[in-house]
Amino acid sequence: MDRDWMRQQLKAFDNLTMRYDANRRPGDYIGDRALYEELHRAEPTVKQILERLDPQLAEKIDIDRMAGAAMARNEVHRGLGILANMDEWAARLAPDAPTLPADRLHPWVWEPAAPLWAAEARQDAILAGARTVNRRLQQKLDRHDIGETDLCLQSFEPKDPVAGKPRLRFAGDRDTPIWHARQEGAKYLGAGAFLAIRNIAAHDEASWSEQEGLEYLATFSVLAHWISECTVESA
After folding, report:
1. Scanning 19, 177, 216, 231, which has the fewest C-beta atoms within 10 Å of its C-beta?
2. What is the pTM of this model?
């Protein structure tokens, strides 16, 4: 959230309500008409801001009610108080658990996803990251003839490459069960990520939470790291 912008909007609305009430004569239901209209124009933005800080504050904003400006000012002051303390709350009240900063995900994933994520278009952000990982995989193998799911299944396949079907290879001793397990794991994780995440993002309306969205981006980040570190082996 852009807390500075939120704070500016709330302060401007606070000043506007004070001007409106200062110019309102006792007994008047509506005061200065120009200020009243200005309050109405600002009200939706203020309600959206308060909704994100505390939904109960937003519910009490209604300029058309008796003493609506004064009541709104009280809720705006509470919102400003929340904004003033959010940084300290985040530092002092955070759970004792590790965090995963999104900007530390693989750049193939986060760079295309970041502007969409900032616009709260989480589904589009995940789709953008998945598509970029697929394009990078296609480029690395110089294959553009099959879909991303089949490409993952073929590229990490432990069997020897054949003409026109190069493989991705992890480092290590290929005669060990661990190496084969890693190849097979990457093969099915990649295919599963495209089938169960990318396809949903592309073809269905998903109401993913922020946590779910970050986990899906992290899944593609893991796949991107594996693609990056593998070498290409051709027939």
Report:
1. 177
2. 0.62
